[in-house]
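Hi there. Long-time user, first ticket. I'm pasting a complex I've been working with (about 789 residues overall). I'd like to know whether the download I got is complete or cut off, because the file seemed smaller than I expected. Thanks.
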Amino acid sequence: MNKIKIVIAGVGGQGVVFLSRLFAEVAMQSGDQLISYESHGMAMRGGSVSSHLKIGGYQSPLISNGEADILLVLAAEELPNVRHLLRHSGQLFINAEKTVAGLEDFQTAMIPASPMALEHNLPQAVNLLLTGFATAHSGFPYSTVQFRSALEKMPIKEKIRAANIAALDLGFNWGSACIR
Amino acid sequence: MKIKKEKIYLGNEAIARGMVESGCGFVYSYPGTPASEILPSFVTQAKQEEQKVYGQWTINEKVAMEAALTIAATGMRSAAVMKQVGLNVAADPLMSGAYIGVDGGMVVISADDPGPYSSQTEQDSRFFAMMAKIPVFDPASPADARSMVSRAFTLSEEFQLPVMVRPTSTICHARQNIPPEPLQSHGDPPRFNKEPSRWAATPRHRFVLHQKLNQKLENLRHDPRFAFYDEQHKNSGALAIVASGFAWSLAADIIAEMKDSQARIQLFKVDLPFPLHQPSIEALLNDFSRILVIEETYPVIEMQFGRRDLVSGRFDKIIPEAGELTPGLVETIIYQQLGKQSPTRPEKSTGIIPRRPRLCPGCPHRSSFYALKKTLVNGIYTGDIGCYTLGLNLKALDTCLCMGASITQASAMYQAFANRGTEIPPIAAVIGDSTFYHSGIPALINARLEDSRFVLLLLDNETTAMTGNQPTPASGLRVNGSQGPALPLEKIISGTGISHLCVVDAYEQEKLQDELAKAWRYTQAENGGIAVVIARHPCMMDSTARKEARRFTTVKVTDDCTACGTCIESYECPSLINDESGIVHIDPLTCVACGLCIDVCPFGAIIGE
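Hi, the file is complete. Here it is re-exported in full:
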């Protein structure tokens, strides 16, 4: 049984909510107790969107400042809004094209997911690209295989499923290459 | 019995699950964040379970409440679902329905929005339950919400009372893995026993009904099922924390991670904040010298303790009187109450403004607002509730009071100036299609009777966009996808006797400006009156509409961009992005290539190819 706290942040339209659902599915398939929360409503109109995910028998889905073990940032400009949630030496996975300063307290892994998504004609799949990238790292609690299997079960159109799986693999391969 | 595998439920889906499991056959709702997902989920889950149910997106919450109360009067189980401000609209039938009571189980779901995040107020529906004198459950998690819905139906039938379940937005939008329970059967056919002293009670009978209601509440106050304290937890040296709903979940997680908290804190969970279990109140007051009540958003539990010398909370401002509870806030309060320093935590960066919500790329409302500002220059624009409330950012809306108020506000603005004989500024009411159906129609009739003069700009995107694109009466589509009778806006408006009415595609900027100018002239003409312009174009949340919005292959910014910022300020499309130097780029990931921004650039630097 994992006991882990994850925050996912991005802007409306990037698929933060979908990713949060996918993480929940992965956690459940791994036999973990989970509770998660996403911001809805006005936030959905291009504003900041974030999702908290607590795995391992918690009551509330909200993560306190400095308590998240893992932070996934889908849009680099959102980092200032959520960085305070990540604990000291926590894992940060961020979609960014240039190095962000002041991240010494964290274990940071960066991927230029937006241009990669465009280049591979997967414009809507920055979320899965970043996730695939994260699964290549040893500190990440779930494997790319687990995400792939959860994606197979999500109620989405086949075309979107295929794009998501392609992005997941692309991210994973990039991550594996970075580590090597 | 076949045990089903656990599934991940959104809080709202868990509430719907509770309804299906309870054999609830009729659910009525008007969409509103954070309650919008409940009705569609109820219909979908019932279908999966092969249960015959009826669900309707009602025209507004008042109708939802009336319909659900009536179904319950026939002995069947029903529910009315809304957000907290929707309960204001439904207050009239609720207050009366509490006296009359029900026969079959009737549950009111009123979802609160502490913060608030997408509401006009952060009012506490539990207070409303208290005012109506009906019991209210406060769920602490999706799983809790599911089981409380089931308990609420049982309680409703037992006490012949409508029962409220009040989730807060965090509960509605939390996800949790829950094993489903088997379904209960409530397949009794409808029957209506004529009983005028109840169903049609006159004031004399109402007095009797009020006494009966008070007796029900008195019985509930002593019902051991709602005890939240017993003497075996006596620990007089410790701080007693009494909490309900999401506030309890926050406290539970914080206390679980505190060192040796056991000796210093006793946490008690209240399932039914009103009426609060009287023996528990008395025993707690007797056994503890310090009690802290944590609840959202008003002091409902705290008030029922009635002992400000022993009980802390919102009355003594230990807990702030406004805003939602956060883990950090609750942690600080608990440590303070123990006389301890709370753990040092990183602070949120200051000076960072979270990206504010904007209308979507290609949103037809943006085009309509642009035309409005161009034609009714320096006008008073009365606004309403929906995505288009974001017109405030574009300086194209001046007011936002409540659902449907834009029309009355425009009418009253006109009367304010006209009655004092001062110069009347251009006045426009801006309202969306769904809001117009919800409560704009009586307002329009009233404005018409007043003989007011203003432009009514009806933003018709053919859906209820803000809350997730529920159908409006214009399409006649039902929540289960079937087709019902359609009620076009034009017919309703014409029915009020308004003759100046035109429909324009919101994407046709020039024509829209022409029509708005004509409408404004009509309001000033000798025999003029209210002039209605329907700006129609489908919502960009619809993927077909997004594809059809594409009027160019690409839209881009040329080197002529002077970084003046006009497009960003006056158009505020999320696809227009300026870098540090102020030079504007178009984000190809989000741009729908509608090209509506082309006309906005004073230097012609935005081009479509």
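A couple of notes from our side: The longest strand of chain A covers residues 86-95. The domain at 4-179 of chain A is CATH 3.40.920.10 (Pyruvate-ferredoxin Oxidoreductase; domain 3).
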